[in-house]
Amino acid sequence: MPGVTRAPDLPQAITEGVVVLDGGLATLLEARGHDLSSDLWSARLLTDDPDAIAAAHGEFFDAGAQVATTASYQASFAGFAAIGLDHDEAAGLMRLSVAIASRARDEHRPSGWVAASVGPYGAYLADGSEYRGDYGLDVAGLRAFHRPRLEVLADAGADLLAVETVPCLAEVEAICAELDGTGLTAWLSLTADGDRTRAGEPLRDAWSMAADVQEIVAMGVNCCAPGDVTTGLAAASGPLVAYPNSGQGWDAGRRAWTGASAFDPGEVIGWLAAGARLVGGCCRIGPDGIAAVASAVSAKA
């Protein structure tokens, strides 16, 4: 964009300060009246209404987010095949998710970044298993699932990969194996329950695996209860990432959130003290929540 000074790359930025992430993309799209009840969730709008995705990214940027996380969380070759799309069509939609976020970035916050979302295997299953990790799939199977879309998203022009909502050590091992030696840039975040993965394993084991992979520039937690952030980050080191959901529960059968929100932007100060350098929100956190997070970060600076 003529006359615009681009920000440094994200790894450099998080060594120098704090970067504000966006919030729940699907949450905002639903609030704007879009039906996301299909198994593809927000990825369905890549085919049906890409402008709606761009507008949602723009709202988060305008609220203070510095990063747009693409609408590819639930995008996979198997998922798109289920609605009749072939390999090339599916790859084109994954690349489109990055192009949409990049356009919104250029229009709303040219100094910002685009993170290509890589959701877990459970997101493809659309049965809530990303909050359990009970896939019944081994590391080799998980590597085979992730490899082709990692290749497409890595080549789509995003600033980095956001590998997120990972619930179990087998999937951490698979992702680490696929990233190791590629020269890519990624963050890795798990959905946690206290100091354990959703499958009940010690988070410290996940952090140990990720620490050995140069491509992973930040690790942490997302789509967990806000109160679990500092506990989840306790055994991790280096630049950390934290973007919890509202603390409400997900009813996969009814495809609905239950309970009351426990998201308190005032807790951001504690996340920063724990080492978080990428902070934002996940499901049920809209632009107002991100504006409050950005305000907390600015007050701390």
Structure report:
The structure is a single chain. The protein has 301 residues and is α/β, with parallel strands linked by helices. It has one domain: Homocysteine-binding-like domain (TIM Barrel, Alpha-Beta Barrel). 42% of the residues lie in helices and 16% in strands. The chain has an 8-stranded parallel β-sheet with strand order 1-12-9-8-5-4-3-2. Strands 6-7 form a two-stranded antiparallel ribbon. A hairpin with a 4-residue loop joins strand 10 and strand 11. Helix 8 (139-154) crosses helix 9 (169-179). The longest helix has 22 residues, at 87-108. The model is unreliable at 1-5 (pLDDT under 50).
Largest sheet: 8 strands, parallel
Gap from first CA to last CA: 28 Å
Strands, total number: 12
Strand content bin: 15-25%
The CATH topology assignment is TIM Barrel
Counted up, domains total: 1
Number of helices: 13
Measured as a percent range, the helix fraction is 40-55%
The CATH class, by name, is Alpha Beta
**CATH architecture descriptor:** Alpha-Beta Barrel
What is the 3D form?
A: globular
Could you tell me the radius of gyration in angstroms? 17 Å
Query: Which spans of ≥5 residues are poorly predicted at pLDDT below 50?
Result: 1-5
Strand order across the biggest sheet? 1-12-9-8-5-4-3-2
Give the topology string: H per helix, E per strand: HEHHHEHHEHHEHEEEHEHEEEHEH
Q: What do the pLDDT scores average to? A: 92
Which structural class is indicated by helix and strand composition? alpha/beta
User: Can you say what the CATH homologous superfamily is?
Assistant: Homocysteine-binding-like domain
